[in-house]
């Protein structure tokens, strides 16, 4: 099977259950669907080039000043734009972590230095600060919770990373696209550090939590308005469509959706963790809407992804991630009935 760079590539396969992409299993909020369908004729006109109503909605939701916010066509566009605006020579990227950082850095032509997460301790961050101190870099990417492992950066290490980078004029790009799946989002988001670190950029998106992957809407936050302006110059005009603007405003207005999401994800993530552990898989603790696991040693040669696909189930191989064993896989947390189908098929394939 071809090497996977992203999940969700279902278009050349017969897939009935896609566990490879981590989208909220509740689906798009009803209010978002209504907002998209309302006033279809309005899409004949250009969108608000400054997306003022959307910017105010994000500002209200995040409790961050509107002039500290920039929106884009998904998080990926903003990651690309930040790299071009900062113009680094070298960037630090976690191994393993989201491949989009490498793509953005390589597209600009900068070098990549990897700081390795500790596989023996659940891909933890204990040695990260020591590695960063020895690097000659101008930008550092952190993913919190990390993708594909789902673990959070401990508070003391997070602050240490921010201090090291501020003292050395290194821009920190904190990707929090999965952090809203944690009920403690308001407490643990890096946005509480914006006033103290003008080298901090936070990237977030509606893609995962609000199941709006096809709409493409992300936003960044920074107290460095000069950097905000430089990033803005790297973005095309009208990059946020009228559909995306309406959808984003409606998504943030739905309070019950968040509550139901947190309840579902915590319950079903624990179910999957227990079932995978019972199959003797190594399961890495996660605070996101996905789990990464490693096959039991006795089944390390099993082509579990290919076998599941024969049953119409797609999971994400972690073979494309740096510093990850070849027999690691990532699965999304879905509705209970879907999770049961996955587990039952895995038990048959692994004969456990």
UniProtKB/TrEMBL annotation:
Superkingdom, taxonomy of origin: Bacteria
Residue ranges of every copy of the Aminotransferase class I/classII large domain listed in the record: 17-343
Class in the EC hierarchy, top level: lyase
MF GO annotations: pyridoxal phosphate binding; threonine-phosphate decarboxylase activity
Its EC number(s): 4.1.1.81
Name of a matching Pfam family: Aminotran_1_2
Secreted is among the record's keywords: no
InterPro entries: Aminotransferase_I/II_large, PyrdxlP-dep_Trfase, PyrdxlP-dep_Trfase_major, PyrdxlP-dep_Trfase_small
Cofactor names: pyridoxal 5'-phosphate
Keywords, sorted A to Z: Lyase, Pyridoxal phosphate
The protein, known as: Threonine-phosphate decarboxylase
Gene name of the record: cobD_1
């Amino acid at each position: 099977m071809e090497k996977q760079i992203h999940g969700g590539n279902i278009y050349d396969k017969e897939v009935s259950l896609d566990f490879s992409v981590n989208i909220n299993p509740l689906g798009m909020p009803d209010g978002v669907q209504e907002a998209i369908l309302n006033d279809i004729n309005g899409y004949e006109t250009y969108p608000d080039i400054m997306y003022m109503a959307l910017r105010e909605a994000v500002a209200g939701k995040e409790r961050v000043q509107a002039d500290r916010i920039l929106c884009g066509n998904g998080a990926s566009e903003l990651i690309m734009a930040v790299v071009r605006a900062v113009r680094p020579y070298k960037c630090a990227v976690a191994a393993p972590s989201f491949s989009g950082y490498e793509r953005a850095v390589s597209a600009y032509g900068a070098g990549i230095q990897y700081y390795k997460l500790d596989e023996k301790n659940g891909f933890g961050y204990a040695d990260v600060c020591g590695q960063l101190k020895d690097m000659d870099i101008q930008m550092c990417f952190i993913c919190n919770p990390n993708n594909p492992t789902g673990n959070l950066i401990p508070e003391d290490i997070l602050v240490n990373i921010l201090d090291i980078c501020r003292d050395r004029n290194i821009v920190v790009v904190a990707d929090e696209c999965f952090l809203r799946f944690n009920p403690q989002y308001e407490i643990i988001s890096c946005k509480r550090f914006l006033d103290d670190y003008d080298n901090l950029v936070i990237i977030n998106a509606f893609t995962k939590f609000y199941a709006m992957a096809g709409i493409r809407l992300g936003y960044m936050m920074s107290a460095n308005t000069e950097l905000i302006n430089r990033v803005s110059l790297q973005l095309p005009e009208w990059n946020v469509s009228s559909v995306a603007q309406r959808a984003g405003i409606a998504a943030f207005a739905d309070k019950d959706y968040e509550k139901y999401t947190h309840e579902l994800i915590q319950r079903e993530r624990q179910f999957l963790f227990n079932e995978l552990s019972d199959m003797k898989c190594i399961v890495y603790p996660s605070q996101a809407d996905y789990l990464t696991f490693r096959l039991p040693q006795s089944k390390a040669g099993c082509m579990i992804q290919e076998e599941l696909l024969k049953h119409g189930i797609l999971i994400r191989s972690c073979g494309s991630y740096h510093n990850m064993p070849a027999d690691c896989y990532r699965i999304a947390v879905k509705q209970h009935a879907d999770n049961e189908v996955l587990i039952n098929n895995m038990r048959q394939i692994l004969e456990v």
